[in-house]
Amino acid sequence: MENIQYKLDLFEGPLDLLLTLIQKHKIDINDIPISLLCEQYMTYIRANLDMGLEVASDFLYMASELMLIKSRMLLPRNPETDEDPRDALRDTVLEYQKAKLAASELSDLFGQYGTRMIKEQDDIAPDRTFVADHSIALLQAALIHAMTEAKVTPENRQAVLEPIVHQTHVAVQGVMIQLLDKLQTGTPVYLDDYFTDSGSRSEIIAKFLSLLELMKTQTVGLPEEEWETGDSGVLQLRCHVPVILLKLPDKEQLAALEEYA
Predict the structure, then answer these.
(1) Which of 255, 251, 252, 257 is nearest to 214 (CA)?
(2) Rounded to two decimals, what is the model's pTM?
(3) Does residue 237 contact residue 261 with C-beta atoms inside 8 Å?
(4) Minimal CA–CA distance to 244: which of 194, 200, 173, 205?
(5) Is the dihedral of CA 189, 195, 197, 199 positive or negative?
(6) Among candidates 24, 46, 43, which has minimal Cα distance to 35?
(7) Quick one: pLDDT at residue 202?
(8) What domains are there in the chain, each with its CATH number?
(9) Fewer CB atoms near the end CB (10 Å): N or C, the chain?
(10) Segments of the chain assigned E as strands
């Protein structure tokens, strides 16, 4: 049995042939000269009478559609109220053109990713007990690099590093407990005095973080009447304002603070 040809020369179907003829003759697709298009189409069909029967039926059906449109164009019609017989053909060719462009782009993507496989990500719990081994040479190189960036020399290293090594560590949880103890005993705590009465920058930062955390949990607060709107429209707070205890922390919160203090 003779093999069926699924292509007419280089065209995959009647729409492909129509689109090629439109592009070749630079035809305005919104105003198709149906006589010219029909003539060119039939010329190509007659030159390829040896195509397979199934494919030939598609091309011949399109030829009959073109002739029908051509005959309707000869009939009198009102351009304002009557539908243009070429509208359906125009919409079909435009949709085919979009599909052809999309197929070209997808073909390029298939060439890049068609042979790849996707594997779902495995949920692997991190091993927090593992400690990587570091060579002594690597640690020495890191130390030398850090000291070079900080401009630490053998002559000044003691003066530079001693304040860092002996710096007092201030725990935020401990500062929170001290503040709650003062407020529970009725000792007044004012915002400006609270920060100025600090021995180091670390203590100021710890006090600031502890105050924010207690305000977030609505354990302490600042009087609303002490807030005011500045000239720029930004909400501002006066410095000498009291810190108010809104509620006592429960036993679990207090135990957690004391554990990490």
Answers:
(1) 257
(2) 0.37
(3) no
(4) 194
(5) positive
(6) 43
(7) 82
(8) 1-75+84-99 (no CATH), 172-260 (1.10.10)
(9) N
(10) 220-221, 227-229, 235-237, 244-245
